[in-house]
Design brief:
By secondary structure, this protein is mainly α. It has one domain. It is about 80% helix and about 0% strand. It is built from 2 helices and no strands. α1 crosses α2.
Length: about 120
Amino acid sequence: MPTVHLSLPEAVYSELKEYASEMGIQITDLIKMMIREGLEKYRKERAERKRRQQEEVTQALLQVLHELEELRREFQEYRAYVEGELYRLNSSIHGLKRRVSKLEDTVEERLIPVEAEIVSP
């Protein structure tokens, strides 16, 4: 087992000695107990910090997910609008093509020269 040597101020040593005596244990056992308790407290605090960080990340991700869902919904609405407009424009273009074709036919009919009959005097 590794060994640690400590240099403590006399006041600290006296206080530890007093607590150890009250508890009926040796000073080294008291120090080991305090170290274990301190480490356990540190582990709990570290675990709590990690849990809070994970919770914050989770909340941030949920917010991003909510915003993405909202954007998806808006995109779908806009897409439906654009598809409707595209259909309307296509219908208008087809109608215009039909009208242009009729106009071309009419113009062609009127521009065809009628062969004049030659009448002899």
